[in-house]
Amino acid sequence: MIFKQFLYHATGCAAYLAGCSGQGKAVVIDPQLHEVETYLSFAAEKGMAITHVIDTHVHADHVSGGRELAERAGATYALHESADVAFPFHGLKDGEEVVAGNVVLRTLHTPGHTPESISLLVTDRSRGDEPWFLLTGDTLFVGTVGRPDLPGRAEESAAELYESLHQKLLSLPDRLEIYPGHFSGSVCGAGMSGKPMSTLAFEKRFNDLLSIGDREDFVEALTRGLPAKPADMLAILRQNQGRTPVEA
Asked: How many CB atoms lie within 10 A of CB 8?
């Protein structure tokens, strides 16, 4: 497997490329518009064609490069099937697999940060049938979880996030590596670590929000003292939803 983590320290954002060098196929996750050329160049250097581009949700803090990258690469652009956008896309279903050679990304619908949020369970079949790592988007971060208030229904979203964590993610193998969509510097969650990866076992042990077993207590803790919303959030959302022109 070729796996690349693109880190943007000014905004605390991360994008990813996972691909199969043997079969020359790759998937890019959560790309940024100003970095489209970077993803294309990296894939080309490794002899891979980008076959799929996936956004883990409709972003509110930066302009997505998903559609432009997919168009330039001749790739499929995908979001969860529930995404509320004004353009055509491949709607991923819960449990659906995206295959790039020996690399398989299984879709887990994990609503809470946003209704359409997903996580991606990644397996490299050249090394075995067990999953290797989890791309958690804005559902689970190192040291915290995604904020629930951006859609405007904080308590309801926090309850959904509790269910996503406890029913989908925390039941996965402890050995899984965790790669989130953000790290310290982002406003998409409070109390993030500056370390942009972890393991599920480490988060179970040290992530305080994951230790809260009662859903009502979790909702109260998560919705208390939320930081200010991202600057230009509504304008960015409309651009990422395809409802206004996107400018680089």
From this structure: 17
What is the domain count for the chain? 1
**Tokens found for residue 244:** 């206004």
Q: What angle do CA 29, 34, 35 make, to 5 degrees?
A: 50
Q: Which residues pair with 103 in a beta bridge?
A: 100, 124
Work out the angle between the directed axes of helices 215-223 and 154-164 (0-180°, nearest 10): 130
85, 79 Cβ separation under 8 angstroms:
yes
**pLDDT, tens digit, for every residue of 123-133?**
999 999 999 99
Radius of gyration of the chain (CA): 17
Containing 155, the helix (H) or strand (E) segment is helix 154-164
Residue 204's H or E segment, with its range, is helix 200-206
Q: How far apart are CA 22 and CA 197, in angstroms?
A: 26
Residue 35's domain spans which residues? Answer: 2-240
The pTM is what?
A: 0.94
Q: Does residue 50 lie in a domain region?
A: yes
Tell me the pLDDT tens digit for each residue of 43-65: 999 999 999 999 999 999 999 99
> Any idea what DSSP says for residue 228?
P
The Cα–Cα gap between 225 and 144 comes to 14
Neighbours of 151 (CB within 10 A): 19
Mean pLDDT, to the nearest integer, of 132-158?
A: 94
Residue-wise pLDDT for 183-242, tens only, equals 876 666 667 788 899 999 999 999 999 999 999 999 999 999 888 887 789 999 999 999
Question: Does residue 245 form part of some domain?
Answer: no
Distance CA 6, CA 26 (A): 15
Whose tokens are 């000014």? That residue is 10
